[in-house]
Amino acid sequence: TPMDMICHDLLDLPWECVQEILGFLDANELCLAAGVCRSFASLCMSGCLWRALCIKSRHGQFLDFKQMLGAFDHPDACPQLMRRAEPASAASSCAALPDQHSSAIDWRKVYARSRNSLSSTICIDTGRGYAKYGLACAEPRSIQICQPNAEATQETVYAHAFKRLGLKRVDLPSYSLIVAEPFRLAGADAAAERSRWRAETERRLLQLYGLRRICIVDSASLCLFASQLTSGIVVNIGFALTFIVPVVGGNIVRSAVRTLRLGGMALTQFYHELLCRLGVDLHSSSMVAPITAA
C-alpha cells in the first residue's frame, strides 16, 4: 500500500534523520505515528522525543525548576538533581530521579504527569485593576478589582476565582495554585515588603482554603516562561506605573529593576488629547485610521 511504501522509504533513512523528522510532531501525532508499524512505534517512543516535548511544551530551557517551581512534585521539576527514583516514597521522588540524559527516565510518563498536573493547577495574577485567573490547561479569565463597584477586592478575589471555576471548598485540597507575585515587589528596595506579602499570602491561602500546594512566582519570570524563555527584559505598563524588570536564567536582577511613574492611564489621556487635537471623532463607531505625529 502507499502507506507501506512511505514507511519503508522513511526507515531507509539514517536513524538520526528519522528522529529529526519525528521531532516536528506533537504528542498526539507521535502516538498516531506509533500505530503505523512496530519500527515506527519503537522510534516514536524514543525518550529523546518525549523529553524534547517536556522542555518545549511545558517548561523553559536551562532553568533550575526545583528553585522556581519545585513545589510541584514531578520529575522534570528538578532536572539538575535527578537520581534514580525510589518508588517507596512519593515525597522524595523529585530528589531521587535518574540523570536527565539517562534512559532510566520514562519521558512519556513525565509528559503525561505534566499534562495531568495542568488540569489540577490554578493560576491567579491579582493585578491592580483586573485579576486574571484560570486553570493551567485553559484560557484565562478576569475579575475587576480595586475599583469603584468592583466585583472583588485583593482579599476576596481568590474565593471569587474558585467559585467561577466551579470549585467547592472540598475540591481545593486536590488542586495546586500558582500565584503571580506583583511587579511592584520585584525591586531590591522592596525586599521586606516582598517577604511579608509572600508569608501572608501563603498563610492565608493554605489555612483558609487547604490547597494541596502553593507556588509563588514573580510575574516577570512567568511572562518569559510563557514564551519558553528564562532570560530577557520584561516591561509591564500598569495603570499608573511602568516596571522594567531584567531576568537572567529565571532570576530577577533586583538591583537593576526600574519603576517609571507613567502608566496606562496617563498614556490613554495623552492619546485622547492627541486625537482630539487632530479632529478625530472618538464617539464614532468607525475605525480610526493610523495617525503619525512628531
UniProtKB/TrEMBL annotation:
The UniProt entry, under Pfam families, shows: Actin (PF00022), F-box-like (PF12937)
Q: Which domain of life is it from?
A: Eukaryota
Q: Which source organism?
A: Calcidiscus leptoporus
Regions crossing the membrane: 233-253
**Annotated Gene3D superfamilies:** 1.20.1280.50, 3.30.420.40, Actin, Chain A, domain 4 (3.90.640.10)
Which protein is depicted? F-box domain-containing protein
In this protein, which residues make up the domain named F-box? 7-53
* UniProt keyword annotations, A-Z: Membrane, Transmembrane, Transmembrane helix
